[in-house]
Amino acid sequence: MTGSWALFALFIGIAVVMALIFIAVTVRKEGGRKQAGSAIERMFDVKSNKRKWNLLLQWFYVRCYRTPVLKLYIRRIRKRLEILHAYDEYVIRRETMSITLLTLAITITVTLLILLLIGNAMAIPWILLGVIVSHGILVDTFVNKSEDRLLKQTVILLEDVRHHYQQTKNVEEAIYAASETLAHPAGKHAERVYEVLTAEDQEQELETYYEVAPNRYFRLFAGISYLVAEYGDRNIRTGSMFLNALAKLVQEINYEIMRRDKLNYLLKGLAVIAIAPVLALYPLESWARTYFPIMADFYESKTGMIVKVLFFAVVLASYLVIRKMLEYDEARYAAQGKRLKWEQWLYKQKPVSVMIDRLVPSPHKRLHFQLSTLLKQANSQLTLEWLYVQRVLLCVVSFAVTAGLFVYLHAAVKHDVLHDPLRNMGIFGVLSEDEKQKAEERTAFDREMLQQLQDQKDVTKDRVIEAVSVQTDTDRNELSVIQTAQRIFDKYNIVHSEYFKWWELIVAIAAGIVAYHSPVWLIQFQRRMRQIEMQNEVDQFHTIISILAEFERISVETIMEWMERFSLIFRDSIKNGLNQYSSGALEALEQIKLEAPFVPYIRIIEKLQLAVEKIPVKDAFDDLEMAREYYMEKRKEHNSRVIEQKASFGKIVGFVPFGYIVFLDLVLPMLYLSVVQMGQSMRSISGI
User: Which parts of the chain span the membrane according to its record (predicted)?
Assistant: First the structure.
């Protein structure tokens, strides 16, 4: 009855969760549109469904935000969405709660189903770990969809602005008219740009908007609109300067949308594929134990447990690598420094800060410069002190876990020797009930004999034979007594050899050292991923410069300011150059070349050096318009090559856990144990 009630409760829980999914999906589908009526409303014939769902989500938000655990979870999602909906608290709460309900509903449903199907208590911690990681993937997926939706709405917004500008020839009126016809969130940001252009202190309002703009494309749009509204539009070779700028901006956004779509299509499922083997591990082992009982010897041995632990390490490494490959959204690098990180919280503790300050290399040392440069090149939000907090914590945890694992393995092997009736049976197929009972009786006898021998010193095989002979009241020269004594003596040697050894301490120290360096290796990989995108950012600089070069009063310093607002990879080098620009323009630009030695980027800086004193900006970059088609084709080819490289590498990394679990946890152990069984059979035949 207990099992029936548990199953009934499970299905009730699933029904509730599915209802939450229905609510969240409905609201998310309705949230981005202003269309009259929907399929769900027509199904229930209720016109106010959307408003009711929204009110329900607002109620859920207020109640859940008062719950300590849910509050932290909701704040994490809200932080990712605030930059997209900076001017609408109602929409922020609605989107946050819809994503929260949807992700929690899917996670709870999947967890309940997996636990019901597997039914292995030992598998629960690993299953929960896999579900937690997969839950993070779900959150990223829904947030990224919101960002992608904003980009697509931005294209529609710019096209509407272009249409209204052709009619009115006024930037403010065109933006206002476009904002009135567009849904959230792009419409709200367009309204904010209109407020900037009509404010008394436009420059101050523009700088304020730069801080809260959802992405770099809106910053560029606001800046171009301000320049045209301030200095006026004029006709160039390709028509209106403002319309030409809008066309180039739309082209840049379309490039980004296509790039994201391709990356999502090729890499979207790889993180799930890397995690999925965790859920398949125990069902696969259960199948092997059922049909090949000899496999139990491997799974319960030290080798089998070490293979399993390494498997989880491989899964974690694959997941982290794929996540770093998917980190292309700008929201990850915007306004995150204000959030209190756990590294920062730990570093504020006095004992931790004292230890970390002793480990962090002093500013005049080479290692300090190398690590600081690495963090900047990888666009990491970590400081050097926070990085060392990560390294020390991972080192200590890895050492403790590895040492604890060896202690646990010794205890597990002892328990296996004393209590497993099928240990080293070397059988294929399934035992009958009589055979199982005999095996259990034999194991109980061996355990009793080992308990008698454990307090004795200098235990030899002859002493074991004597003890077995006395215990069974059988002649010591009987073959059965000798075989039983040999089996017990082997178990005795195994039990007394299971203790923490010196080389295991060295392995634990080595694991700690590897963990100590792993954060640096991960940041180096992140830097490598960012370096692949350098050419893409240089191409975006070309678009910005080609737009700004058409303004007659544009200066090199202004171009650098725009490049700094738009850039991700080269932001630090440009910012340092701007800080030194007043002391000497040529020297500042030369310093930028030294800090970011990327050849296409250096060519842009060299042209800016020419434009400082010798020639106008437009003349310095006249080749951008003349070779525009060539640059476009070259950029398409580069983007396709980069995406293919990421996809190929991602597929290899994503499928490594599957290959590991099939080969090292199933095929190879089965082959090895088959060879052992064959050897035992041959020895038995030879003995006969």
Answer: 6-27, 99-118, 124-143, 265-284, 304-322, 392-413, 502-523, 652-673
